[in-house]
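Hi L., both proteins are below.
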Amino acid sequence: MPKPITLSQNNVTLEPLTQKHACDLAEACQDGELWQTVYTSVPSPENMADNIHKADVMADRVAFAVIDDTTGRAIGTTSFYNIMPKVKRLDIGYTWYAKSYWRTQVNTTCKLLLLTHAFETSDYLTVGWRTDIINTQSQRAIERLGANKDGVIRGDRLRRNGVITDSVVYSMTQDEWTDAKIHLQHKLTRYEQR
């Protein structure tokens, strides 16, 4: 199992998610009223502390708060989850950021940090992602990372409104990581040139 660690680059830090982040995250999710989107895992402001507790007690999850180093505040979360040490596979998910951080270097930086840790430090062989079939924005973001679309799993997801839906599943292997890493690093240089 990957251990809780702190990772940092480009004024973004991933640190173990704890209750100390609850107030910042309750504020961050209000930037865009993200919890009102039925196909995401963003908790409402009043449920933030409970959501952090649930992340903490999941045996196959390592959850991170995403910190904007320029403000020192938590602006979202991301996680390793569905961790399978015997087959060296894990998923990245439970990812969300305050809306004002969308289309910035934050997501690219987080994925570069997480993928580097998974493939190079923890020596995992496969990293996966899952997203709701109607969440095309998330699908495009995952594809921009260099992940391959593996297919659709039908009827495996329950939206917060009670609707059963499908997941689009992606993965990246350790062999594909070198090219994907170069691509992500190149993307980050474009953000720096803005």
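That was the first. Here is the second:
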Amino acid sequence: MIRPDDLLVARLGDRRVRSPLNLSTTAGDFVPDYTDDDARVLLDVELTAGAAPSPLAFERAGARSRIFFDPKATRAAIVTCGGLCPGLNNVLRSMVLELHHKYGVPDVVGFRYGFEGLSPAGVAPVALTPAVVEDIHKHGGSVLGLSRGKQDVEMMVDTLVRMGINVLFCIGGDGTLRGAHGIAEACARRGPPIAVVGVPKTVDNDVAWVDKTFGFDTAVEIARQAIDGAHSEARGARNGVGIVKLMGRDAGFITASATLASEDVNFCLVPEVPFELDGARGLLAALERRLASRGHAVIAVAEGCAARFNSDDVVRDASGNARYASGGSDVGPLLRDAIAGHFKQRGFPATVKYIDPSYMIRSGPANASDAIFCNELARNAVHAGMAGRTDTLVGRWHRHFTHVPLSVVTGQQKRINPDGALWLSVLESTGQPRLCNTPSMITPALTEPPPAR
């Protein structure tokens, strides 16, 4: 259980420097205001009539009237880690422009290829100036490069101290944020006043206590295009089945959201919701009923569903994450072959088409929604770092930007709630039944064959 004290954000010390942003200190005078230190965003905005609101709340992000670092004597650094994600270059660019033009920070460096760049054996860092980042937001990937895997925390802090870094921005997912938390703890033990600020990046949208991570909107948009293609393929063949495998190791947010955006998916499979292939109430039987009724079907499946087929043969990457796209652990070919084999055995003519857009999804540039979101995240991260906030992540909660301690973020991951509104919307959109044979796990209202669509 989270306690109010768990949400207190670490501060490097008293803020004695007047902010150079020249914002208003008077509310309501048509000039953007500084954010008050006491401003909070409630964790839960819903309550029973007459009940007292929960005391749990995040510190609100935003520019402070006084900051910890003297901008002209500050050196900032940025690192991008993990896998590619739409919007990385947008965040980089906005951070550099905010630091240079608004705060007057003269020196910003970028560490190359993730946390490897903080190793003496890594590629040398690069200077990040407005000229360097001028057009990078138009391209996918990261101009700094990325990598996975752990590095020695004390060694990374040694690098920060040796280079005179005052603020480190870590852009990445769960593994990156754990690394940032370790760096912040080491800095606190050793004493150098270095602010460590995380920015949540993952197309999976599975970072806890953040309502959305950047790259997610773009991922859903491209995933919908793949589903549209699968739908056309399925309708163009007799008893056509279109299968689209989407990213999502342990969380099915892309698959569920793309299903809702498309409205042409008949079966949505995510890691959080049990399903079975065989049996009278399994996927294959439901698919057979669907084809007999409508002559085509579309299936969207998250890569993490591979664990339901074979959990013993999973290869892991340098960060310890399961690589479900490898060998016999790729759910797409497994599902394709199982469906094709089932209908062949039944003597039922069917055409199965399989689409895997995974690397297209994560390697492209950000769409308009993500680009705006990236800019806001980046600016708020800069405000947090210059104000001396540390060991914290800048996220968004109830559409307000917040500071969340990294110890809270890294303690758990966000998952689809099978009893929540998102999954209910998926079930209503697809009309799919509960795909399991265990009576205790079946909701009667959801056990009938999918309606004709």
